[in-house]
Amino acid sequence: MPKPKPLSKELIKGAMSQTLSNRAAARYLNCSYQHYKKWAKLYESDTHDNLFEQHKNQSGKGIPKFLRSGGKEPALTDIIEGRIDASSFSPEKIKYRLITEGHLLEECAICKFNERRVSDYKMPLLLNFKDGNKKNYRKENIELLCYNHYFLTVGDIFSDKQIKGIEDHVPVNQATVEWEMDDYTRQRLVELGLDKPEEEYGSDLISKI
Ligand SMILES: [Zn+2]
Question: With contact defined as beta carbons under 8 Å apart, do 21 and 48 qualify?
């Protein structure tokens, strides 16, 4: 990371307008969270004690109903309405944005399953394209399905070889997974009372399990 540089109020406000949390704003500015926090706390806010407090509260409000515009990312509406070819963007990222920007509820469309795995907070939901065209992100064509309902209504999730691997006599490999909890997940967990607010953590989010 480059040597920390002073962050002007305009820079911080600009980052806040493009993000939903302080952590995301720090990432947007390509600086450490601690560095961002130090500067954001220095500037006055119209509604809160300072800009840091303002952005923290904003992030607690949940899924935004508006679309983010500008920046490097394409407007999601262009992908949803077919104006931009989705194939040049990461499907994983589009799926994440469909959820965080309020186009898809993070639950199985059939049974409403929405539980997270304790170890990494992932949810077993797959994005299904009803017409089989994986570039067609039109609202009526996409849905999230739990593994069971994907299996029952669409098809196999695991190949025969993968199932064989799961069920053979080799002990389950408890591999070390390195992961970083994203802002969206953390925010949801705090809302659900399952995690503490981000300021209670250090600057390094990478955890090992
Ligand atoms: Zn389901």
Answer: no
CB 87 within 8 A of CB 135: yes
| Whole-structure pTM value | 0.50
Nearby residues of 84 by Cβ (< 8 Å), 6 or more positions away: 74, 78
185 alpha carbon – ligand 1 mean position (Å): 20
Residue 128 near residue 143 (C-beta atoms within 8 A) = yes
Structure tokens at 33: 């969270």
Distance CA 200, CA 196 (A): 7
Domain ranges (residues) in the chain? 9-62, 63-162
- CB 70: neighbour CB atoms within 10 A? 9
pLDDT in tens, 126-162: 999 999 999 999 999 999 999 999 999 999 999 999 9
Q: How far is the CA of 75 from the centre of ligand 1 (A)?
A: 29
Which residues are within 5 Å of ligand 1 (an ion), measured at CB? 108, 110-111, 113, 146, 149
Q: d(Cα 103, Cα 63) in Å, to the nearest integer?
A: 10
